[in-house]
Amino acid sequence: MIEGFAAAILMGLAGSGHCMGMCGGIAAALGQQQSTAWRITLFNLSRVASYAIIAGLLGGGIAAIGGDLKSLMPAMRLFAGVLLIAMGLYMLDWWRGIQILERGGAIVWRGLQPISRRLMGQRTLWSTVALGLLWGFLPCGLVYSALSWAIAYSGDSHAAWLMLGFGIGTLPSMLAASFSGAWLQRLFRQRTTRFVVAISIMLFGLWTATMPMMKMLAMGH
Known about the structure:
Elements: H1 2-14, H2 16-33, H3 37-66, H4 73-91, H5 100-120, H6 125-135, H7 141-154, H8 159-179, H9 182-189, H10 191-220
């Protein structure tokens, strides 16, 4: 699980350019509206917590319904590895097939969007926390892919720890957008940076997929 947590952080870091493109304007607006650093930090911590909570509930629920998933773990790890490779391709803008995951999330987000708009104009402690928690449901192919990978990789509620790592990886870019960290924004938008991290994720995905395949082949002999 340690290597998975590290991979999850890398995913968040590699997706920083995408995060800034999709949410950078909102993060900047939040920084202007909620001028205190602690409010901006609290929003982002709540956002990261929402990723972990959603993953824990879904992973735990699937494990509870499915019972003993040990026999399915090789196939789930194989699926997780394929998702990692797909995410790497998505981050490099070489293949955007995983955006199909956004379509289902868009249905949920349409119901939550009016609430998030109301919360954006408020400056209370609870509105900041609530907005951050709602942000975990934003229809984002990168987040949904990471969520699917976390559940497939862990097979249970431990997916929460993997999504916590993913959320931690997104913090630098989102905080930079809120605090106008121009140099950090430029770093995350550089293709070289995205390339190195995305290739690392794809290699880990290849390793993740290869291990269960080797086990299945060994069991077949």
